[in-house]
UniProtKB/TrEMBL annotation:
Name of this protein: Cytochrome P450
Gene3D superfamilies: Cytochrome P450
Organism: Paenibacillus phyllosphaerae
Pfam families membership: p450
Record carries keyword Oxidoreductase: yes
Cofactor(s) essential for the protein: heme
Amino acid sequence: MDTVVATNPPQGPKGSWLSGNLMDYRKDPLGFLVDLQKNYGGAAKIRFGPQTMYVIYDPALLKEVLLTKQEHFVKLKAFQEARLFVGDGVATSHGEKHKRVRRLIQPHFTKAHIQKYALQMVHIVERELRTWKIGERRDLTEDISNITFAIIAKTLFSLEGDGYARAIREPYELINRMCAERMRLLVSMPLFIPTAKNQAYKSALHALDQGVYDIIKQRRAHPEQEEGDLLSVLMEARNDQGEGMTDQELRDELMIMFIAGHETSANALSWAFSFIMQQPEVERKLYEEWDRVLQGAPPTAATYMQLTYTQNVLWEAMRLRSPSFFTGRSATRDVQIGSIQVKKGQSVLFSPFAIHHNETYFPDPLTFQPERFENDLLKNIPQFAYIPFGGGPRGCVGNHFAMLEMVIALCMIGQQYRLRLTPGHPPIEMEPLMTLRPKNGIQVVVDPR
Ligand code: HEM
């Protein structure tokens, strides 16, 4: 694909008079987003019902939205549905409120700070792997989600044990599905109408809330227990008037950390394994790197730096299966992006998944090829051409944390076991819910390494 600069004004598929392009999006969200780029280049204009929106692909346009003109945008209005459960925490808030919390949490996610989490991450993976047995079949996506959830719970909030995971992950399963479904409707059923689906959704939302409020309650009762973790930092923070966060504000921040922090990494890792299991050459190179660098020991913050092929496998998995496949911004005033006049209230969407399929920057884009990240690929393509973690001031705060935990888990699983897909495993399909996950999980047989 040639680099295509947005035409002025951007064009887009016609769609139906009532719902615009919504039905085509609903039928196949990923295909729709990739085709828009193929057919319209750097930017396309689409309509979901009465709302006209722009979908941008050109890295130069993205740079304006995410960096140079980011102050004229807030998180996508269409994500209101997700606010039902994530609330108004750092990922959804804006302005001063966002800045204040981001400043508060950012120091906990610097490269230097997360090094001290490495050992805790190793212990959690070790504990999980102790329950695996040679020859058994396992649901890999479920196992990895257990690991990434336990890592967030322990490192950020000093929580241990399955109780927290059950209290949060179980209701979240249904919420994730329902939320994604409702976001794809032009008009979703108001929640006060007592349909069976609505009732189930509401009781899951209530259970999720309860799970998080219980954590806050316990810590308020025993504040002396843990000092210096993210929860205590959030609890001790004071605004200019000397006021601390309310329970609801704390709930919103915890919720986003749990949700944004565990599902994305679990999906990225699951996808990485799906490629490794199907490409013996990639597996061989990983073994070679682990044997050479780690010599049987678990990774540390220091050896992490030398595990470059392992990191490239993860970068490539996130290129082809970007967990955050679709996101966007809404303009708070009229603003010009390239040659596009975005009106106040209009939305600008972008899809890391589709952007990563641009063959100008990623030749042979459908092939899994970790080697493409060698020789500083990211320095040789435009900024914002590869954005698994977004970018600019609203980029992922947990990017280094995620890379470290994923490298640790990938190495430790692979040093001990050779995973293979169960015989006759169906093709692993993509399921775009709140994040991009493997539909029906990935079932594996655990062989000795
Ligand atoms: C592979 C794993 C991950 C991926 C692919 C990922 C991806 C992203 C992306 C694309 C965004 C920006 C969304 C936008 O611009 O609309 C984001 C934001 C965010 N992520 Fe991650 N993330 C991952 C892991 C994590 C982890 C481990 C944490 C926390 C421990 C985390 C916490 C957040 C938060 C708090 C935000 C909102 C930042 C803000 O708005 O200031 N993420 N993430």
